[in-house]
Amino acid sequence: xxxxxxxxxxxxxxxxxxxxxxxxxxxxxxxxxxxxxxxxxxxxxxxxxxxxxxxxxxxxxxxxxxxxxxxxxxxxxxxxxxxxxxxxxxxxx
Length: 93
Hints:
Layout: E1 2-3, E2 6-7, H1 17-37, H2 48-59, H3 63-67, E3 77-81, E4 87-92
Antiparallel strand pairs: 1-2, 3-4
Helix pairs in contact: 1-2
């Protein structure tokens, strides 16, 4: 099995938050942002580290702050953003 130019055995078993951010931010900019700009509601269901990367970016958290961030499993977290996609507030349902 091949994934791009890597064989299945060459794929890393883990990735750090920086690597996750590198992978998640293009999806944010290319898929999520356009939907938000069209006033669509977006639901993101992802692994904890992917969510942590997006929260770090949206909330402009430092590496130390995001390390302390606890994202509970199966608990919806709502973000309200302004027209420039800056956080107004966020809360758990």
